[in-house]
Amino acid sequence: MRTIIGAAIPTAWLVVLTLCYTYPTSELRTLALPLGLGFIAIFTVYFIRIFTDWRTRRWRAALPFTLCVVAYLLAHVLGRAMDHALHASR
User: Fold this and answer.
1) Tens of pLDDT along 1-37?
2) pLDDT for res 64
3) In sequence order, which residues have a C-beta less than 8 Å from that of residue 42 and are 6 or more positions away?
4) What is the pLDDT of residue 44?
5) Among the listed residues 20, 33, 25, 5, the one whose alpha carbon sits nearest the alpha carbon of residue 75
6) CA-based nearest residue to 79, from 8, 2, 13, 5
7) Tens digit of pLDDT for each residue in 35-49?
8) Residue 48 burial (CB < 10 Å; 0-12/13-18/19+)?
9) In angstroms, rounded to a whole number, what is the distance separating the alpha carbons of residues 9 and 13?
């Protein structure tokens, strides 16, 4: 169950933040705030879990944290690329 939540929140945050770059509406920004707080919480918990679960899960302990890092980096890149592609005539 914790793996599903650990994957769902960064993925949802990635989608919403990418859409916020492309179509900045108040509804998307309102949705991004609780997802952002959840993302920070998941990021912190899974950073700690790398060290606490390493003996039992080995490299798999780092997967949810790595997903958070990739989602953070991709959100800005994808958002700017989509904004540029959709609004190139501006």
Assistant:
1) 667 777 888 888 888 888 888 888 888 888 888 888 9
2) 85
3) 5, 6, 9, 10, 64, 68
4) 93
5) 20
6) 13
7) 889 889 989 998 998
8) exposed
9) 6
Q: How far is it, in rounded angstroms, from Cα 77 to Cα 53?
A: 31
Closest by alpha carbon to 9, among 45, 60, 61? 45
Amino acid at 6: G
Structural domains of the chain, count: 1
The closest of 50, 44, 51, 38 to 5, measured between CA atoms, is: 38
| Residue carrying structure tokens 């879990």 | 49
Taking the C-alpha atoms of residue 17 and residue 11, their distance in angstroms, rounded to an integer, is 10
The average pLDDT across 62-90 equals: 85
What range defines the domain where residue 73 resides? 2-86
